[in-house]
């Protein structure tokens, strides 16, 4: 069939000017579609290629324009709408053009086609890397013509590099699938007509509302909320994760979209916050907040896609600084630009949570769901149905706290604290109207209420209320009451620390530490923390613990050291809360020293008597020692998943036990020679079944440092290990010990002493992905090295963990024999970007002779990376230093490695010139490797 150029031009709709706010000149898009027509037959392959080339260029121009405008005005919803508008115009034109490529020679009633946008695209908003979801709708069956046009459109979109989700169905098939599949139902809920036979689309909408939606609102709501809960469980149950998922995470876009869906489905009105206002589920002010949150999240998500060039939805550390820059955030004293941006993000996430809670609670109240469900924030409470019970100015109905009248807080502002105390005592949820009234009444919380003795008494009661404490404090925080009542806490609400160590915002971390303490007090952590559980039952005044944990990071985000500033805040807040002078001073001391025990345990040699003596001077009493241990454990456990492990617990127990002996007059009074003699005698007694000559030979193998630094059980294990190696002529022997409770694995090596042995061990671990947390190095009197490295556990099954350790040991043996080249292996592992690349930490090398009586202590703090310990130990060996022990601590991206060293004559390093050289060489290897890594990443 021959078609003239005039007929071709009149057959395709090129009036792109009808699209509002198209991010490209309409004439430009018309030109792209008009160009192939000029060539003649649109079905020719050359015409299709020409069209595809033009569309690729137009798509690039449109995206560039949207990106430029987004960076200029920061309006996320507008950017998403403009992208959607562009694809609307392009798809409509492609459908029209497809009709030219495959003309229907004798069209019948079956030759009808409707194209609709569904899913997220159906809402008229589209992120740069999002899928384009389309529904190709046929009247009662597809025909060769409709299939050809559909395939033409899809192949063009795929060839443009777009991700297209599509369905090709009749109206009846669509209705049947919507009944069976909630995902299809949700997609059709947001269907939007693009082009084609509009009567087909109207038929779909009418039947969808009558045959699918009608009478099924409770089922839909229950499904969407269950889907939300499942998504949160998969992505992360907290909205305050420091690398949030913008789309699927708690407090993210999907939570707002769930409200869209509920409003549209239940009330069969247009999508968006307006539907919820019309239904009375949100107020006008809450709807404005809804739109504000939506716009911010769209801006973040669009920027993410533009920066990465893909549909990246997680706001990872390496992307956060660039997002902050593009969104115009700047540095303030104590806070980086990225931290200010992330604080804004988490405040928005909190607002999304508030809106979700309000809508869901209101739906419960209206019994729109099959059965009432307790607010997710209070799901740990014990739910009980009950008749109305009155509590002062409040009453409880169906386990929901409600106010008697709207003047309850105006008459008595103390009620703003009292209502939470009732919630904590009775495990009550809040009625949504009460939450709204609390939020509206925040202006009543001023200096008078902050200083009110009764309000502070009630707050202290809430803080120490036990297992409900965490839930109620989080509710106080999310309603804004906690930050207003305690302004010092208000400063750190939604504050994010730009590091890989902390998994949550500062306020969420503080609340979680209190929850950990409450769980500890209940006895439910007795198996994991037997020592702390025992102490909790012995401590008569637990108030100081709860207050100290609430305040221990209260001064984060300030220029001054947060421990020192926090102690000062504690001395100010303590009396206000009603603490005695002694309680206040104890709280201030705990806040100031809350990192001391952790740092000492992880980065100091606990077998060195000076370490214990210095720590005992800080603690001074066994009562403080117990309190500090509990604060330290709760703090570490609340940092995030995987941070606490049995190895850290063992280090803290060792530090506690050794310090207690000092404070109670134990082994501090025993002379060094006497301690050595006692250790030798105890081991001799444990080896009583050995022949006398063999036992004495073993006892003579070790130098004094071994007896002072090694536990008896380890001495026995080493003795058996040495005995199994025979007469000492074997060039290499190893032993693997899997320690379940501590979640670590020990690899002990017995081999002729070698100045680079520890470096080779560190390199082998790095090459195999094993993370070293500690190392003990001993030399025997017959010239062998008895070295033990402790690595973090990687596998649940002991057999798997043992096999991995055996591979590490085998690699160490091969490296010693010169059969493998570790630098090459490490170079391969370092290829490609790593999370640490997003951070910069200036290397800090400290050399201290006051921390040990026998050793010089070198402490190195720097950015962690693969092979760091290998590089450091190699340089230390090159500097002719002998490492007695190494203590490896990693706090996210920050490594703190501590080495106890002497010169080759066993003396401390006292010469200033030599100390300067050591410091210079170590900094050089750190900075040099960092530069190499940056160059590799850039290439």
From TrEMBL:
Where is the stretch described as Uridylyltransferase?
1-389
Q: Which InterPro entries match?
A: ACT-like_dom_sf, ACT_dom, HD/PDEase_dom, HD_domain, NT_sf, PII_UdlTrfase/GS_AdlTrfase, Polymerase_NTP_transf_dom, UTase/UR
Which Gene3D superfamilies does this chain map to?
3.30.70.260, Beta Polymerase, domain 2, cca-adding enzyme, domain 2
Instruction: Kindly list the biological process annotations in GO that this record carries.
Output: regulation of nitrogen utilization
Pfam families according to UniProt: ACT_ACR9_3rd, GlnD_UR_UTase, HD, NTP_transf_2
Give a yes or no for keyword Magnesium in this entry: yes
List the EC numbers from the record: 2.7.7.59, 3.1.4.-
Keyword Magnesium recorded: yes
Recorded family membership: Belongs to the GlnD family.
Q: What does this protein do?
A: Modifies, by uridylylation and deuridylylation, the PII regulatory proteins (GlnB and homologs), in response to the nitrogen status of the cell that GlnD senses through the glutamine level. Under low glutamine levels, catalyzes the conversion of the PII proteins and UTP to PII-UMP and PPi, while under higher glutamine levels, GlnD hydrolyzes PII-UMP to PII and UMP (deuridylylation). Thus, controls uridylylation state and activity of the PII proteins, and plays an important role in the regulation of nitrogen metabolism.
Quote the record's domain comment: Has four distinct domains: an N-terminal nucleotidyltransferase (NT) domain responsible for UTase activity, a central HD domain that encodes UR activity, and two C-terminal ACT domains that seem to have a role in glutamine sensing.
How is this protein named in the record?
A: Bifunctional uridylyltransferase/uridylyl-removing enzyme
> What is the species of this protein?
Afifella marina DSM 2698
């Amino acid at each position: 069939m021959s078609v003239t150029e005039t007929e071709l031009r009149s057959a395709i709709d090129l009036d792109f000017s009808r699209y509002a706010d198209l991010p490209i000149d309409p004439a430009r898009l018309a030109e792209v579609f008009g160009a192939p027509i000029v060539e003649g037959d649109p079905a020719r392959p050359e015409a299709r290629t020409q069209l595809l080339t033009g569309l690729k260029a137009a798509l690039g121009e449109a995206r560039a324009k949207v990106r430029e405008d987004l960076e200029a005005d920061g309006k996320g919803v507008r950017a998403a709408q403009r992208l959607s508008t562009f694809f609307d115009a392009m798809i409509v034109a492609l459908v029209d053009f497809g009709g030219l490529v495959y003309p229907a020679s004798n069209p019948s009633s079956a030759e009808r086609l409707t194209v609709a946008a569904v899913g997220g695209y159906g809402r008229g908003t589209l992120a740069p890397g999002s899928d384009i979801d389309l529904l190709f709708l046929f009247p009662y069956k597809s025909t060769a013509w409709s299939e050809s046009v559909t395939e033409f459109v899809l192949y063009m979109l795929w060839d443009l590099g777009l991700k297209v989700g599509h369905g090709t169905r009749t109206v009846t098939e669509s209705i049947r699938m919507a009944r069976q599949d909630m995902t299809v139902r949700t997609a059709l809920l947001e269907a939007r007509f693009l082009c084609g036979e509009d009567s087909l689309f109207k038929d779909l909408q009418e039947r969808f509302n009558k045959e699918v939606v009608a009478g099924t609102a409770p089922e839909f709501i229950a499904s969407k909320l269950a889907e939300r809960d499942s998504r949160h469980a998969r992505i992360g149950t907290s909205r305050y994760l420091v690398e949030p998922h913008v789309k699927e995470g708690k407090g993210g876009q999907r939570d707002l979209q769930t409200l869209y869906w509920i409003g549209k489905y239940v009330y069969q009105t247009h999508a968006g916050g307006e539907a919820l206002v019309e239904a009375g589920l949100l107020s006008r002010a809450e709807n404005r907040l809804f739109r504000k949150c939506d716009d911010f999240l769209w801006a973040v998500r669009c920027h993410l896609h533009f920066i990465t060039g893909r549909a990246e939805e997680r706001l990872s550390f390496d992307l956060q600084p660039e997002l902050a820059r593009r969104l115009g955030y700047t540095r303030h004293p104590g806070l980086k630009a990225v931290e200010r941006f992330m604080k804004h993000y988490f405040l928005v996430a909190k607002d999304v949570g508030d809106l979700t809670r309000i809508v869901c609670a209101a739906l419960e109240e209206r019994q729109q769901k099959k059965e009432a469900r307790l607010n997710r924030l209070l799901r740990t409470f014990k739910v009980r149905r009950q008749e109305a019970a009155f509590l002062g100015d409040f009453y409880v109905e169906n386990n929901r706290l409600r106010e008697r009248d709207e003047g309850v807080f105006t008459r008595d502002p103390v009620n703003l604290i009292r209502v939470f105390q009732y919630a904590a005592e009775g495990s009550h949820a809040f009625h949504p109207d009460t939450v709204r009234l609390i939020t509206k009444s925040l202006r009543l919380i001023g200096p008078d209420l902050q200083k009110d003795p009764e309000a502070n008494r009630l707050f202290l009661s809430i803080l120490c209320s036990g297992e409900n404490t965490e839930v109620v404090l989080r509710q106080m925080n999310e309603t804004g009451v906690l930050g207003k009542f305690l302004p010092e806490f208000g400063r750190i609400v939604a504050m994010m620390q730009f590091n890989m160590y902390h998994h949550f915002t500062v306020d969420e971390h503080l609340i979680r530490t209190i929850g950990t303490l409450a769980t500890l007090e209940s006895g439910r952590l007795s198996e994991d923390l037997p020592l702390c559980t025992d102490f909790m039952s012995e401590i008569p005044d637990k108030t100081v613990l709860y207050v100290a944990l609430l305040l221990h990071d209260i001064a984060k985000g300030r220029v001054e050291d947060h421990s020192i500033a926090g102690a000062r805040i504690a001395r100010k807040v303590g009396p206000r809360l009603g603490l005695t002078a002694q309680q206040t001073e104890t709280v201030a001391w705990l806040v100031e020293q809350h990192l001391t025990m952790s740092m000492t345990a992880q980065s100091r040699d606990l077998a060195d008597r000076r370490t214990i003596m210095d720590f005992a001077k800080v603690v001074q009493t066994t009562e403080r020692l117990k309190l500090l241990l509990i604060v330290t454990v709760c703090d570490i456990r609340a940092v995030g998943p995987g941070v606490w492990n049995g190895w850290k617990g063992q280090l803290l127990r060792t530090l506690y036990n050794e310090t207690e002996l000092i404070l109670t007059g134990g082994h501090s009074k025993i002379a060094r020679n006497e301690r050595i003699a006692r250790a030798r005698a105890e081991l001799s007694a444990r080896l009583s079944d050995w022949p006398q000559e063999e036992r004495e030979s073993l006892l003579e193998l070790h130098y004094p440092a071994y007896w002072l630094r090694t536990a008896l059980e380890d001495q026995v294990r080493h003795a058996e290990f040495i005995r199994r190696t025979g007469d000492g002529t074997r060039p290499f022997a190893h032993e693997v010990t899997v320690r379940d409770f501590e979640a670590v694995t020990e690899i002990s090596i017995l081999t002729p002493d070698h100045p680079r042995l520890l470096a080779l061990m560190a390199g082998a671990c790095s090459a195999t992905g094993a993370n070293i947390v500690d190392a003990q190095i001993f030399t025997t009197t017959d010239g062998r090295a008895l070295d033990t490295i402790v690595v973090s556990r990687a596998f649940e099954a002991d057999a798997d963990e043992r096999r991995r350790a055996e591979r590490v040991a085998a690699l160490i043996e091969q490296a010693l024999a010169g059969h493998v080249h570790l630098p090459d292996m490490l170079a391969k592992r370092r290829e490609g970007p790593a999370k640490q690349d997003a951070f910069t930490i200036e290397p800090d090398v400290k050399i201290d002779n006051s921390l040990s009586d026998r050793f010089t202590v070198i402490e190195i703090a720097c950015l962690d990376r693969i092979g760091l310990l290998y590089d450091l130990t190699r340089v230390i060996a090159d500097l002719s230093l002998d490492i007695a022990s190494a203590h490896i601590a990693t706090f996210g991206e920050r490594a703190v490695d501590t080495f106890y060293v002497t010169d080759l004559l066993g003396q401390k390093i006292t010469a200033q010139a030599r100390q300067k050289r050591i410091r210079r060489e170590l900094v050089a290897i750190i900075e040099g490797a960092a530069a190499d890594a940056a160059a590799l990443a850039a290439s």
